[in-house]
Amino acid sequence: MVNKKTKGMWCLWIVSLLLIPLLSIFGRGLQLALYKSVPLSFLACCVYSLFAVSLLCYLLLLRRAGRLSDSWQLLWLAGLTWYCYGDLHFVEKIHLLLFGMFGFFSYLLFTWKTALFTGFALSLLDEFLQYLLAARVGDWRDVRLNLFSVCIGLFLASLLRRDANEGQVS
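^ that's the sequence the OP posted. Answer follows.
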């Protein structure tokens, strides 16, 4: 039986799944239109604000799950993420948000092996799709960034799910 909470997670997982190919197909045109109409500094501010809101939402989830003591994990994770993504163009940082969200909801809905496999498969398929599109380029570096982002989402979800699994009686 699917409860409301699980149904909501399925909806968010499907949205994250659909956003990835949609942005692969239409993202370049959207990006060029934004560059013409909005200052680059404002766009960068929007992306960083989105990351900040995501972090605050995650902290609220940790608090709600009674795992706020695990919030220190965000410090080393933030350092590692900054190291891997810090010098990238702000548009490439969207990989972290999209694939991280996909990995997060995949882990909450499936086993970690299934979540990792679907994240890896989606990373490959997304770059293959971009390889087929005239205005895009399929890149192995992006597969690595996508997979790293999926792993970040998996790790963050594991902190929440661990609490739920510890409370179960075998």
